[in-house]
Amino acid sequence: MIIKDSQSERRRSPRIYRNVPLKIVDEHGDIVTETANLSGTGAYCQVNRYIDMMTKLKIDLLLPVTKGGAKESRKITCSGAVVRTEPIPGNTEQYNIAVFFTDISKRDAAFLEDFVGQDS
């Protein structure tokens, strides 16, 4: 469980605490997971292997959207870098990572900011 403490919040971008499907690709293969929280500049998620800080990643997010009353997904593809890796206490095979988006199209960045803004 992630608890938001507004007094210690240092982030500039609004953040939502929502599970969004996420695929991470690095030189060691793919990891399919979901976000614990998401902003226009990055994501925090759990992975099943250790990933070094500053590792470059390819990221696919599947954002839920509603079009004409039907639920769909909008795929956002970008690049990112791991800025934090934390072992999960008592679990040697799971890690929480923070990813900063380093390369995202202006169109996708605007869509992501709108998505985050709807829930924040």
How would you characterize this protein structure?
- With 120 residues, the chain is mainly beta.
- The protein has one domain (16-119): Thrombin, subunit H.
- The protein is built from 1 helix and 7 strands.
- A 6-stranded antiparallel barrel has the order 2-3-4-7-6-5.
- It is globular and about 45 Å long.
- Residues 1-9 have low confidence and may be disordered.
Chain-wise SSE layout:
Layout: E1 15-16, E2 21-26, E3 29-39, E4 42-47, E5 56-67, E6 70-88, E7 91-103, H1 106-119
Antiparallel strand pairs: 1-3, 2-3, 2-5, 3-4, 4-7, 5-6, 6-7
Quick structural overview:
The protein is mainly beta.
Number of helical stretches of at least 4 residues: 1
CATH architecture: Beta Barrel
**β-strand number:** 7
Q: Tell me the series of helices and strands, N- to C-terminal.
A: EEEEEEEH
Low confidence ranges: 1-9
Helical fraction equals 10-25%
Q: Give the termini separation.
A: 18 Å
Largest sheet: 6 strands, antiparallel, barrel
* Widest sheet, order of strands: 2-3-4-7-6-5
Please, what is the CATH homologous superfamily? predicted glycosyltransferase like domains
The level 1 CATH classification is Mainly Beta
Shape: globular
Strand content: over 45%
Spatial extent as radius of gyration: 14 Å
Index terms:
120 residues; mainly beta; Thrombin, subunit H; six-stranded antiparallel beta barrel; 1 helix; 7 strands; 12% helix; 57% strand; globular
